[in-house]
Amino acid sequence: MLHIAFSSLITIAILLFGLQQEPLEGFMTGIRANAVKGEVVYQHEDGKFDLEPGLKLEEGDFIRTGVDSYAELLLQPGNYLRLGGETECQIVSDQHDDKMRLKLNHGAISLEILARSFSDFYYSSDQINELIRVITPNAEVFITRQGIFRINVTAGRTEVIARGGDAVINGRRVKEKHRAVAANGSVMVTEVDSKLEDNFDAWARERAAKLVHANKLLQNEAPWSKRQKDEEPSVEMPEDSKETNDHGRVISAKPGAVNFVEDGVEFTRASQDWQQLTEKSQLETGDTLRTGANSFVELVLFPDMHLRLDASSELRLAQLSNDSTSIKLLRGSAIVDVARFDKKQSPQITIASPSTSVAIAGDGNYRIDGDRITVRYGKVIFSGRCVGSCRRIERGTVSECDKNARDNFDFWSEHRGEGELYNGRGTVAMGTQLAQVRRERFRNTGFWLQQPGQTSYTFVPFTSSLFRSPYGGSYSTVLSPRRIPNRVDAGGRPSFPSGHVMRPRP
After folding, report:
1. pLDDT tens across 378-420, in order?
2. Which of 264, 240, 247, 244 is nearest to 101 (CA)?
3. Cβ atoms within 10 Å of 454's Cβ, excluding its own
4. 120 with 73: CB under 8 angstroms?
5. pTM (2 decimals)?
6. CA-CA distance, 190 to 364, in Å (whole number)?
7. What is the per-residue DSSP string for 253-293?
8. Backbone phi, then psi, for 84, in 5-degree steps?
């Protein structure tokens, strides 16, 4: 099955009264300004301009607000980013597929993450929702769960308030109705009165109410007001021209396929210069990888075996073949996730720190930090003996590990999918399944719609499954009252009953 990627701007056409069609202008991916109050500017390369509703922002753009000035940006459909006064925020990555990164240099932002009334039986909210990362001068915040999150940044201090849902800051979980402050290398978590609001919070709440109301008013507008009882729209979501390499496609049998990579990851071969790593890069024995600050990479060593490299890390692929694979961490941290291991069929896999080397001997989760190798669970062969779960190997010494130790790298690796999942028909690597689940959830959620004559967009779900604002109120006007069946055409594209399509705009 081919991976489906969406164009940033699409046209949705709904069949009305036989052959009559009325196009709806909407989009699904990218980041756009939706509302502006006061003095707000954005900087694109060397130019500075006033921010206006409807403007599409690009990676690298800065948004700056003045005193008592606010801005609202659209993220993935149903998710909003709002900026408070005297704030500077940069779009590092606008990609929806677990790569969305925002950099908050100072000031305050509020994130509203779409609430769903249904959940998947096998997965947690952290696993099935797309990841949004907010980078500050002294912290990194991960958000995957539905809710309302306020992030404040001042000199040497980052504060996260979870009014609804959970967040993670520097490895610490911030639960609903709690706040966390990261300063001086530590994180303090305390309870908070989620009802306390300032002017910025009140504006965010007002905007949320207006957007839900705007969705409800669509029932009185074409094409909804003209739709016959049994009429159903149909939608074709065309494959984007950009090729991707993920679990949705057949992974190369050659070990070391690039499965996930962010900007800021490079590799070098022999004495060649460092070059950007992409999904198309073909890694070989002797190659060295390095990641920049706040950048992650994931490789498929073998089916059901993943290697993940933390930010600001470096690793050498000492051996990379179907018979034997050996990796050596030079600095930083790495995780090797082995969902299934057959000692009779699996090749030899060796992982090493600068001073220690072990051979993987079973299913498990293995982490390397500097000179330390930790067997979270599983087993390895070290100096001729077997070392089992929750053991730490460092400079020839074996000791117990800390089961509760977690950081942002662990959270990201867990989000990508660790271990094995039983799906009723057999077993599959969790990472393989989660990539498909998140892709389907995004594809079946909804789109941003702008009615003719309006300056702002509102969220419209594709189907009648209940989607709500975490502030309250549901998005009741949907594209189709009944779920549109998914089918795949001969070209590998999902297709639907004939009638109308979502077409890329020029």
Report:
1. 999 999 999 999 999 999 999 999 988 899 999 999 999 998 8
2. 264
3. 13
4. no
5. 0.88
6. 34
7. SSTTEEEEE-TTEEEE-TTPPPEE--TT----TT-EEEE-T
8. -85, -175
Measure the CA–CA gap between 223 and 193, rounded to whole angstroms. 43
Structure tokens at 56: 């599409």
For 410-453, the DSSP string reads HHHHHHH--SEEE-SSSEEEHHHHHHHHHHHHHHTTEEEEE-TT
* Cα atoms in the Cβ-side hemisphere of radius 13 Å centred on 502: 29
Closest Cα partner for 172 from 140, 202, 145, 204?
A: 140
Share the mean pLDDT of the chain. 85
State the amino acid at position 267 in one-letter form: F
Give the dihedral of Cα atoms 396, 399, 402, 405; nearest 10 deg.
Answer: 0
Number of other CB atoms surrounding residue 20 within 10 Å: 10
Residue 290 identity (one-letter amino acid): R
**463-469-474-477 Cα dihedral, nearest 10 degrees:** -50
DSSP 81-135: EEE-SS-EEEEEE--TTT-EEEEEEEEEEEEEE-EES---SS--HHHHSPPEEEE
Pair of tokens at residue 40? 């707000």
Longest pairwise C-alpha distance within the chain: 77
Q: Report the SS3 class of residue 210.
A: helix
As a whole number of angstroms, the distance between CA 182 and CA 159 comes to 6
Could you tell me which of 193, 121, 222 has the C-alpha nearest to residue 477? Answer: 222
Distance, in Å, from the CA atom of 501 to the CA atom of 462, rounded to the nearest integer, reads: 13
Number of neighbours of residue 102 by Cβ within 10 angstroms: 24
- List Cβ neighbours of 290 (8 Å cut-off, separation of 6 or more): 265, 266, 267, 274, 313, 314, 315
Which stretch of DSSP H or E encloses residue 172?
strand 172-174
User: What CA–CA distance (Å, rounded) separates 341 from 209?
Assistant: 51
Q: What is the pLDDT of residues 258-284, one digit of tens each?
A: 999 999 999 999 878 999 999 999 999
For 309, phi and psi rounded to 5 degrees? Answer: -115, 130
The pair of three-digit structure tokens given for residue 497, joined into one six-digit string: 């009953």
| pLDDT band for position 426 (cuts 50, 70, 90) | low
Cβ atoms 266, 277 nearer than 8 A: yes
